[in-house]
Amino acid sequence: MKLGEHCKNTLKLKADIEFFVYQSDIFNASCYPPDDNKLYIILSSGILERFSKEELTFVVGHEIGHVLFEHFDYPVRQILDEGENHLAPIHAMKLYAWNRNAEISADRAGLLCCQDFEAVGRTFFKLSSGVTTDSLDFQLNAYIEQFVDLEEVLNDANHDPSDWYSSHPFSPLRIKALELFNKSETYAEFNPNITGEITEEAMEVEIKRIMSLMEPENLDDESEHSEKIQRLMFLGGYLISNADGVVDDSEIQALSSIVAPKIFANCMMTIKGLTEDEMIDEVKQLTKDLDIVLSVMQKLNILRDLSIISYADGEIDDSEINVLHNLARLLYINTDFIDRVISDAQGVN
Predict the structure, then answer these.
(1) CB under 8 Å to 158, separation ≥6 — which residues?
(2) In a domain, 83, yes or no
(3) Per-residue pLDDT tens over the stretch 20-74
(4) Cis before 169 (ω within 30)
(5) Looking at the domain assignment, is residue 164 inside a domain?
(6) If you ran DSSP here, which 8-state letter would residue 171 be given?
(7) Can you give the pTM of this predicted structure?
(8) Could you tell me the CATH number of the domain that includes residue 270?
(9) Fewer CB within 10 A of the terminal residue: the chain, N end or C end?
(10) What is the C-alpha to C-alpha distance for residues 284 and 281, in angstroms, rounded to an integer?
(11) From the CB of residue 346, how many other CB atoms can be counted at a distance below 10 Å?
């Protein structure tokens, strides 16, 4: 494929590219470097048939970017699978954060290849919606513009940012990060049509700031509501662990990794005298107190982190999911978010 040669030359890839296509209507792409001199790029027939040349160029460039940035040296899925009982939830959370940042780096390689930010937007939209008709171009542009000012989006009580928690196939944070790169002096060096409105330093500072929205809560935070948040996370995590009737040592260890040591010690002392119903009543009161002070994003972060705890041992059963759903309802978050986070995390590759 000519676009493969184009991407290879643009990104100064030394390895030869070989394309493989498999039958599937699902839009998907992946890559695998068997050695330093060869790179396999695997495309589904669906993505090959229904994506434009520019869109495919972004996809292929993105996959090559993973190789050039040596992301395969850190196999996230393998680390999570093999870690199971030995990987603390807080470390699992950091691996998912690393994965989100890896996608942003690879996106830059894709844009360098296709040189068309609008084509990138169409690519994300197609991957997300499955809709490929060109008649939706106008709506797509309007959709992208919704995320130009993330501060405005965060302050919009009617906006549901739950989709932001997917690294694949679509995330508004990825669109925003790439939009900043598209305006940068760094990218202008490679694309003469770009004026370079912001410096590289300013770009990286802003991207780091918006990505921090997705990071686990700071356990050392001594803000007014921090203790209540951590108490809620401990009790929520304990109820999840106890869903099967037994809380083992590995689950206690997992709980110790998501709250500050002082909070953990206090929680361990106080729960000894509490029944499960009393814990549930306290969780209800905590969520009621915190509902008016927590942003939607903070609520989603709490639920995401508790979801990660639920399958830190490599398994999750219906009783644990039921507890997570109940916690989501108490925070006025759609339970679909829980299902999505669990599904996405289990499918990280």
Answers:
(1) none
(2) yes
(3) 999 999 899 999 998 889 999 999 999 999 999 999 999 999 999 999 999 888 8
(4) yes
(5) yes
(6) -
(7) 0.71
(8) 1.10.3680.10
(9) C
(10) 5
(11) 13
| Residue appearing with tokens 């029944």 | 275
Reading phi first (left if > 0) and then psi (alpha if -120 to 50, else beta), residue 31 is in: beta
Q: Are 260 and 325 a contacting pair, CB within 8 Å?
A: no
Q: Is residue 24 in a domain? A: no
Tokens 């691996």 identify what position?
A: 95
**Which residue type does 168 have?**
H
Task: Centre a 10 Å sphere on the Cβ of residue 290 and count the other Cβ atoms it contains.
Answer: 19
Angle between helices 89-114 and 172-182 (to 10 degrees): 50
Query: Is 143 domain-assigned?
Result: yes
Tokens 């434009």 belong to which residue?
52
2 vs 22, 52, 74, 119, 311, CA distance in Å? Answer: 19, 14, 30, 18, 44
- Segment 106-150, tens digit of pLDDT: 999 999 999 999 889 888 878 877 777 665 554 556 666 666 565
